UniProtKB/TrEMBL annotation:
It comes from the Bacteria. The lineage of its organism: Bacteria, Bacillati, Actinomycetota, Actinomycetes, Pseudonocardiales. This is Lycopene beta cyclase. InterPro entries: FAD/NAD-bd_sf.
Length: 367
C-alpha cells in the first residue's frame, strides 16, 4: 500500500511514527525549519512518542482577576517537545516497533494533492492514501491567535525553572492579551505576548508590552533578547472538511488546532493513533470518532464573546482555573468532561453572554 504524508512538520512526523507497520513517504519542502520549533502540551497518559519529551512540569502559574496561583496539575503533566527530538524519536520508533519497513523522507514541494495521486515538484505519483498537512480548503477563521515571543537572557536569576506561566493578564490588552512564560533555567525563558484578536496586532506595541512585562512584572533588572519569533494562528471552531476521496487532511489543515487555546499537539497524537487503528481494523483511515460537537460550540462561543468584549477572556480563564488543581480545566480543554462537569466549571461565568453566543451559533447552523 502506498502511503504519502504531505508535510513533515508536527502532524506529518507524528503520523509517520504511528504508522510504523506501513511503508510511508513523507514529502516536505523544508520551508518550516524543525530546528527552531517546539510544542508544549499537557497529557495525563503515556503516548507512543513520549521519548521526544525534553521537559516535564507538574505545576503551572496563572495570573487572572488580580490573583496569582501556582497550581498543581493533578494527573496531568505539562511537557515540551522540540522539533529535532520529534524527528529522531519517529525514526527510532519505526525501527524498534516494526523492523523499519521503508519510511522515505523526500525533499520536495507538494504542488497538488488529489484523490489517488500527489504532485511533487511537477511530477505526479500514485498513492493509495494521502495524509495532507499542507493544502486543501479551510473554513473561514472565527478569530486569530497572534503571538510575539522573545527568547530572553536575564542578568539576575528571574525565572522559576520549574513552573511555566500559562497566562498572566498583567499586560497591555491588544485584543484579549496575556503573557506566557516557558522557563529554561533561572536566566533564560521564552516570554510570549499572546492575543486573541480579529485584526492585525501592532508589533511595536507588543514589543513595548514585553519590555514592560520583563521590567515591571518580572523585574529582570536587565535582559537581552536572543531571538524573536512571531506567528498568527487562524482559530477555527467549525470542523474542517477532512476527507477528499482517499485524501485525509491532518494537523492544522485537519482542524486539529483547538480554537480556544491554539494547542494541537495532543490532539494530533490522538488523531494519529486513531488513523493507525482504523487502517489496521478496516483497511481505511476514516474511522476517527471526533469528540462531541458541543466542544466546538463552546470554543466558538468563547471566541464570539471575547471578540465583542475582550475582557471576558480573563474572566473565563480565571473561572476555569479556580479549582485546587488545574486538572478540571485541563480535562475540559482536552474535551474529556461530562455535561455535569461542564455545568460545574461554567458556574461562575456570566451565563447570559455565553448562552446568547451559543444560541446565535446554533441558529446560524440550522439556517
Ligand atoms: C509559532 C507557533 C507555535 C505553536 N506552539 C504550539 C505549542 O506549543 N503547542 C501546541 O500544541 N501547538 C502549538 N502550535 C499550533 C500547532 O500545533 C502547530 O502549528 C503545529 O506545528 C501544526 O502542525 P502541522 O503538521 O499541521 O503543521 P506544521 O508543523 O507547520 O507542518 C507543515 C509542514 O509542511 C511543510 N510544507 C508546507 N507547505 C508545503 C508544500 N507545499 N510542500 C511541501 N511541504 C510543505 C512545512 O515545511 C512543514 O514542515 C503553534 C503554532 C505556531 C504557529
Amino acid at each position: 500500500m502506498m502511503i504519502v504524508i504531505a508535510g513533515g512538520g508536527m502532524s506529518g512526523l507524528s503520523l509517520a511514527g504511528h504508522l510504523s507497520r506501513w511503508p510511508v513517504t513523507v514529502v516536505d519542502d523544508g520551508h518550516a525549519d524543525l530546528e527552531g520549533l517546539a510544542w508544549a502540551s499537557w497529557s495525563d497518559r503515556p503516548g507512543l512518542l513520549d521519548a521526544a519529551v525534553s521537559r516535564t512540569f507538574d505545576r503551572v502559574r496563572v495570573h487572572a482577576g488580580g490573583r496569582t496561583w501556582v497550581l498543581d496539575l493533578g494527573c496531568y503533566r505539562y511537557r515540551v517537545v522540540l522539533g529535532p527530538d520529534l524527528a529522531r524519536v519517529v525514526r527510532v520508533v519505526r525501527v524498534v516497533r516494526e523492523l523499519a519497513p521503508g519510511c522515505r523522507y523526500r525533499r520536495g514541494h507538494v504542488d497538488l494533492v488529489e484523490d489517488g495521486r500527489i504532485v511533487v515538484d511537477g511530477e505526479a505519483f500514485p498513492a493509495r492514501w494521502v495524509f495532507d498537512s499542507v493544502g486543501g480548503p479551510l473554513p473561514d477563521p472565527d478569530g486569530r491567535l497572534a503571538f510575539l515571543g522573545w527568547h530572553v537572557r536575564t542578568d539576575r536569576p528571574a525565572f522559576d525553572p520549574d513552573v511555566p506561566t500559562l497566562f498572566d493578564f498583567r499586560t497591555r490588552q491588544l485584543g484579549a492579551s496575556f503573557v506566557y512564560v516557558l522557563p529554561v533555567d533561572p536566566h533564560h525563558a521564552l516570554v510570549e505576548h499572546t492575543s486573541f484578536t480579529s485584526g492585525p496586532v501592532d508589533d511595536t506595541a507588543r514589543r513595548e508590552a514585553l519590555r514592560e512585562y520583563l521590567d515591571d512584572v518580572i523585574g529582570t533588572d536587565g535582559h537581552v533578547v536572543e531571538r524573536e519569533e512571531s506567528a498568527d494562528l487562524p482559530l477555527i471552531s467549525r470542523p474542517a472538511p477532512r476527507r477528499r476521496g482517499n485524501v485525509l487532511a491532518i494537523g492544522a489543515r485537519g482542524g486539529l488546532v483547538k480554537a480556544s487555546t491554539g494547542y494541537s499537539y495532543q490532539r494530533v497524537q490522538r488523531d494519529s493513533a486513531a488513523i493507525a487503528r482504523s487502517l489496521r481494523r478496516h483497511g481505511h483511515p476514516f474511522d476517527l470518532r471526533p469528540p462531541p460537537t458541543r466542544f466546538r460550540l463552546y470554543d466558538g462561543a468563547l471566541l464570539d464573546v471575547v471578540a465583542a468584549e475582550p475582557a471576558r477572556l480573563e474572566q473565563a480563564f480565571a473561572a476555569l482555573f479556580r479549582h485546587a488543581t488545574a486538572e478540571p480545566a485541563l480535562r475540559f480543554l482536552d474535551e474529556r468532561t461530562s455535561l455535569i462537569d461542564e455545568v460545574r466549571l461554567f458556574a461562575t461565568m456570566p451565563a447570559a453572554a455565553y448562552l446568547s453566543a451559543v444560541r446565535r451559533r446554533l441558529s446560524r447552523a440550522t439556517g
